[in-house]
């Protein structure tokens, strides 16, 4: 009996140790559980409802019950709705041009703000000014500035001897005007990301290149750009996501006009739901919009991972 007692105590201790190890392994999984439940409630459930609604024909301006149509809304969108195809084209042009200009201007400004000069702190603070006002308020200001008769933009052109343009009042210039507004408003965010990446770069490669006689352009092309690739891809992902789903600025300035020349994907879906009351059709548009964002973002995320490996 005296020999059995120590072994029993050892066995009980091992059971406790096993239980503690089990709790230690499972406890970290419980900490994110409340956040996951909240995300499921505010994201997953609405997405499932929109997917279910997209399979039905439900119009609020007609006194008839909801009708299951399967993929009928998707077929109509992809094959028979020319306005939907136009919104795809507008979204593609707006996103491509706006993001390209934001990346080019953002990289140039980040390189300038990374230099040592007097007033650098003030310049870095001033570059953030376009981000202070809300997008809707900035859009209202630009809407007044683009007015053909009373706008300050045409007034400045008249002082230079030019009669001015119709800007957002004509289909040929409306989309370009909105791209300019988005570039001026969102470029500071690109500057912040790229400037942070520039300040994190090591100094040793530049010192070695200077000793080898490399020019500034050679150092930029062969050292700065490869080392900055991760920050560039990160800025590209953020700007592509926010630009492809832009709604407030376009709606406040043009509401998708004139002649649907600025009606992007988000404006099209909004008008289908809250102007024409075609809720099922708008839900199908939203689902296609979600798939479009995934098709754009997932390759960028894969590129981001490769940049980290590089």
Please sum up the structure shown.
With 310 residues, this protein is mainly α. It contains 13 helices and 2 strands; from the N terminus they run H-H-E-E-H-H-H-H-H-H-H-H-H-H-H. The protein is 73% helix and 1% strand.
Essential attributes:
MetI-like fold; 73% helix; mainly alpha; 310 residues; 13 helices; two-stranded antiparallel ribbon
Write the layout of secondary structure elements.
Blueprint: H1 4-30, H2 33-53, E1 56-57, E2 67-68, H3 72-79, H4 82-113, H5 120-126, H6 135-145, H7 152-159, H8 171-199, H9 204-211, H10 216-244, H11 248-253, H12 265-274, H13 279-309
Antiparallel strand pairs: 1-2
Helix pairs in contact: 2-13, 4-8, 4-10, 8-10, 10-13, 12-13
The global form is: flat
Order of helices and strands: HHEEHHHHHHHHHHH
List how many beta strands DSSP finds. 2
The CATH superfamily appears as MetI-like
- How many domain modules? 1
Structural class: mainly alpha
Low-confidence stretches: 4-12
CATH topology: MetI-like fold
Distance between the termini: 66 Å
Percent of residues in helices:
over 70%
Under the CATH scheme, the architecture is: Orthogonal Bundle
CATH first level? Mainly Alpha
How can the largest sheet be summarized? 2 strands, antiparallel
């Amino acid at each position: 009996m005296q020999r059995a007692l120590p072994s029993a105590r050892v066995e009980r201790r091992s059971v406790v140790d096993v239980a503690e190890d089990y709790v230690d392994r499972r406890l970290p999984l419980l900490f994110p559980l409340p956040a996951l439940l909240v995300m499921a409630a505010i994201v997953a459930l609405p997405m499932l409802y929109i997917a279910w609604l997209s399979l039905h024909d439900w119009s609020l301006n007609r006194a008839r019950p909801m009708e299951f149509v399967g993929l009928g809304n998707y077929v109509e969108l992809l094959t028979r709705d020319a306005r939907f195809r136009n919104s795809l084209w507008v979204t593609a042009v707006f996103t491509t041009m706006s993001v390209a200009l934001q990346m080019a201007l953002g990289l140039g400004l980040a390189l300038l703000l990374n230099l040592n000069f007097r007033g650098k702190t003030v310049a870095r603070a001033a570059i953030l000014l376009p981000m202070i006002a809300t997008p809707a308020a900035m859009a209202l200001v630009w809407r007044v500035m683009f007015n053909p008769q009373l706008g300050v933009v045409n007034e400045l052109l008249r002082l230079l001897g030019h009669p001015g343009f119709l800007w957002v009042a004509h289909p040929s210039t409306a989309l370009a005007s909105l791209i300019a507004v988005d570039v001026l408003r969102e470029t500071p965010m690109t500057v912040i990301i790229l400037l942070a990446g520039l300040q994190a770069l090591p100094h040793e490669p530049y010192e070695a290149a200077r000793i080898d006689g490399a020019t500034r352009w050679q150092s930029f092309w062969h050292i700065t750009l490869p080392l900055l690739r991760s920050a560039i891809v990160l800025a590209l992902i953020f700007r592509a996501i926010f630009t492809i789903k832009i709604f407030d600025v376009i709606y406040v300035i043009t509401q998708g006009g004139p002649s649907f020349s600025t009606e992007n994907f988000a404006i099209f879906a909004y008008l289908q739901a809250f102007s024409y009351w075609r809720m099922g059709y708008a839900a199908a548009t939203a689902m296609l919009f979600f798939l479009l964002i995934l098709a754009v973002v997932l390759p960028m995320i894969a590129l981001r991972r490769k940049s980290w490996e590089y």
